[in-house]
């Protein structure tokens, strides 16, 4: 739609500036002068378009264009009309082997129809339009995915430096410093902010965009071979559909019902496989287009919380293992002694399976004990023992196996060039930020904010506390304490996996019901409790105990979460969104408003468009504020680290709470990221937030005072 609107704007401009025959009769001097100027502009734009100097064309057209932007209604009507043209003109061609005497097998490629679905209450129903594609088209999508025109490709030159809301990033494509997704107040807040206020954010995004990448051709070759062989290895999806179950030759209703459920399940799986196959094809398409380039760049922008993302959506370092496996730094650096050590640690971290929880020396020992497997993986990735496939991140593991094999076999390992990005990840990063905000020593120790012989595992720590509580409860009299029976059943089920999801989502304000459902799913997977009602009761008890353990270990975090939530509730109850400014100066406005429905009649059907109303969603504003606030802090920390690394001469890439650099520079990165974390929390962050909130709603002073006193 952006492209279409842009073409319309240029066409209107050319029409406007073209000299019409009727203008020859004009005699007034001013009129002649205006016409001459328009003629010059028309000639200049036409010449620039022939030379494909689109950026210059854009600048001229924007400066002269006085037309209003298309509204939501106009876009919907134009889009519907374009779809209608597609339906009327797209047909499936006759097969090549069809006999001339047969009637041509020509049918529409796409069909528009309406469907009716009953709502849960079954007293009402909902109709909606669908576009169905012919089976041949559907199958062809996978084959043609890699030949599609992909917008916002990685750039072959460094991105344009950011200087404003819509100034920076790509050379010609529309680029915006923030992904606002139609949130008007957020967009206006960023536009109002001065360039000086946003300078730290712009500098950080420019730094992230200046990192040069290239394709690891050896890993890409292995991916291609697996994909050509049907997938199914290294977490690649199966290229074939699952076979549909045969319809039973019986009228037994029980058997037929089971078959229908099985059929529905397999069809759903095949739809998911199709989606995953298209995704892989797009990733491979980008990889193959870029594989012979010396290097390329990813322009970055931020979401409304201030977290940075590459603007290219398919093959980037925020993606899955296959993306990270085929991407590497374009610039290589000698490993050095520390780099060789960190490359070994990195391989153990990628292998995971508990190995990543060992001490650093333990991880090095693991890698050195598997050198024969590493050599075999590098030399014969598919013909050999395939040890690398046992890793949690197999393609990244393979990339390290190749680089490490070259180094270890060299007479001078320290001089071997490495392009591998080595990761330094946060330990339950949200809780790290809460521990720092609350100056919480106990919580800090649990999430590795203080030094230790080996990394602390917060999930194991919570599991140990849960087990301790359950062991005590199991000793109690069931007549007085009914949960004693559940405690006795669960003591053999408690481990880090049982509580991990609840601990991870605690920073997002997970509720008791959410925790109960998470633990129930884990218990159901294990088949530990067969009876449905007993399973529900056990999960309810386990959730209560887990949240208690979390509250004990992270008391400061729970207090801060509660305080932030209460502040948001008071603000939202006045029909105001929660606002704050990140430590780097980015204004944030939570976008959660009630959605109104608007009906519009198009040439295709009646459409229901969603529009934000002026009414904020009080509950969503309250529950979303704590996690969004923490995300704005981790985004600020990553950006501060990125800029400091560039100034120190390091290559840097970031994935939220995971920081990447060359193996030889990991020690420097570790020092810098810790210095920036301390620098971030030397500022009175919560005090600044409270002042900001007080500015929004003055009478919140009383609420904050009462909370702080209690």
UniProtKB/TrEMBL annotation:
Catalytic activity: RNA(n) + a ribonucleoside 5'-triphosphate = RNA(n+1) + diphosphate
Molecular function (Gene Ontology), one example: DNA-directed RNA polymerase activity
Entries under SUPFAM superfamilies matching the protein: DNA/RNA polymerases
Functional summary from the UniProt entry: DNA-dependent RNA polymerase catalyzes the transcription of DNA into RNA using the four ribonucleoside triphosphates as substrates.
Pfam families recorded: RNA_pol, RPOL_N
The DNA-directed RNA polymerase N-terminal domain, residue ranges: 1-210
UniProt keyword annotation of Glycoprotein present: no
Top-level taxon in the UniProt lineage: Eukaryota
Classification via PROSITE patterns: RNA_POL_PHAGE_1, RNA_POL_PHAGE_2
Enzyme Commission numbers on file: 2.7.7.6
Nucleotide-binding listed as a keyword: no
Protein family membership: Belongs to the phage and mitochondrial RNA polymerase family.
Recorded GO CC terms: cytoplasm; DNA-directed RNA polymerase complex
Organism listed in the record: Solanum stoloniferum
Stated name of the protein: DNA-directed RNA polymerase
């Amino acid at each position: 739609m952006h492209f279409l609107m842009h073409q319309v704007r240029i066409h209107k401009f050319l029409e406007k500036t073209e000299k019409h025959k009727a203008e020859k009769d004009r005699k007034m001097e001013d009129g002649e002068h205006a016409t001459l100027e328009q003629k010059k502009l028309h000639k200049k734009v036409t010449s620039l378009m022939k030379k494909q100097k689109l950026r210059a064309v854009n600048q001229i057209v924007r400066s002269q264009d006085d037309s209003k932007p298309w509204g939501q209604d106009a876009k919907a009507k134009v889009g519907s009309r374009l779809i209608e043209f597609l339906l009327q003109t797209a047909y499936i061609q006759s097969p090549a082997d069809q006999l001339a005497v047969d009637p041509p097998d020509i049918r529409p490629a796409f069909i528009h129809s309406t469907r009716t679905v009953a709502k849960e209450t079954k007293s009402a129903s909902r109709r909606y339009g669908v576009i169905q594609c012919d089976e041949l088209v559907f199958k062809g999508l996978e084959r043609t995915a890699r030949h599609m025109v992909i917008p916002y490709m990685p750039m072959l030159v460094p991105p344009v430096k950011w200087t404003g809301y819509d100034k920076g990033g790509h050379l010609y494509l529309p680029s915006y410093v923030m992904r606002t997704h139609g949130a008007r107040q957020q967009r206006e807040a960023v536009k109002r902010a001065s360039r000086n206020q946003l300078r730290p954010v712009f500098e950080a995004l420019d730094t992230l965009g200046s990192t040069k990448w290239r394709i690891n051709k050896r890993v890409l070759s292995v991916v291609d071979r697996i994909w050509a062989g049907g997938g199914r290895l290294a977490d690649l999806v199966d290229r074939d559909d699952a076979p549909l179950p045969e319809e039973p030759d019986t009228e037994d209703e029980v058997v037929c019902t089971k078959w229908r459920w099985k059929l529905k399940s397999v069809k759903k799986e095949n739809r998911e496989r199709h989606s995953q196959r298209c995704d892989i094809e797009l990733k491979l398409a980008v990889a193959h287009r870029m594989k012979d380039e010396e290097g390329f760049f990813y322009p970055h922008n931020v979401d409304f919380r201030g977290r940075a993302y590459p603007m290219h959506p398919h093959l980037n370092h925020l993606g899955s293992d296959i993306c990270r496996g085929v991407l590497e730094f374009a610039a290589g650096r000698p490993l050095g002694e520390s780099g060789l050590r960190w490359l070994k640690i990195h391989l153990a971290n990628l292998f995971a399976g508990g190995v990543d929880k060992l001490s650093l020396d333990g991880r090095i020992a693991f890698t050195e004990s598997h050198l024969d497997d590493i050599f075999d993986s590098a030399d014969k990735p598919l013909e050999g023992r395939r040890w690398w496939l046992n890793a949690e991140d197999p393609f990244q593991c393979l990339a390290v196996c190749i680089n490490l094999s070259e180094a270890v076999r060299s007479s001078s390992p320290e001089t071997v060039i490495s392009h591998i990005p080595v990761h330094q990840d946060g330990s339950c990063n949200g809780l790290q930020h809460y521990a720092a905000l609350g100056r919480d020593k106990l919580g800090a120790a649990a999430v590795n904010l203080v030094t230790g012989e080996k990394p602390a595992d917060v999930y194991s720590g919570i599991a140990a506390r849960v087990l301790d509580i359950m062991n005590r409860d199991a000793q109690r009299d069931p007549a007085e304490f009914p949960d004693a029976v559940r405690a006795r059943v669960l003591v053999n089920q408690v481990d880090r996996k049982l509580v991990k999801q609840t601990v991870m989502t605690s920073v997002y304000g997970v509720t008791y019901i959410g925790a109960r459902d998470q633990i129930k799913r884990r218990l159901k997977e294990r088949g530990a409790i067969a009876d449905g009602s007993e399973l529900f009761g056990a999960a309810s008890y386990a959730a209560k105990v887990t949240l208690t353990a979390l509250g004990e270990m992270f008391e400061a975090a729970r207090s801060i979460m509660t305080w932030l939530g209460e502040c948001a509730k008071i603000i939202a109850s006045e029909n105001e969104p929660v606002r704050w400014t990140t430590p780097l100066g980015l204004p944030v406005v939570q976008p959660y408003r009630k959605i109104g429905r608007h009906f519009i009649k198009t040439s295709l059907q009646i459409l229901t468009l969603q529009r934000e109303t002026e009414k904020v969603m009080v509950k969503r504003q309250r529950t979303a504020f704590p996690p969004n606030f923490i995300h704005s802090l981790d985004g600020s920390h990553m950006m501060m680290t990125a800029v400091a690394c560039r100034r120190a001469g390091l290559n840097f890439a970031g994935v939220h709470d995971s920081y990447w650099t060359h193996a030889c520079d990991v020690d420097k990165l570790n020092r810098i990221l810790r210095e920036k974390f301390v620098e971030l929390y030397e500022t009175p962050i919560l005090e600044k937030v409270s002042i900001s909130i007080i500015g929004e709603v003055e009478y919140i002073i009383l609420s904050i005072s009462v909370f702080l006193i209690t």
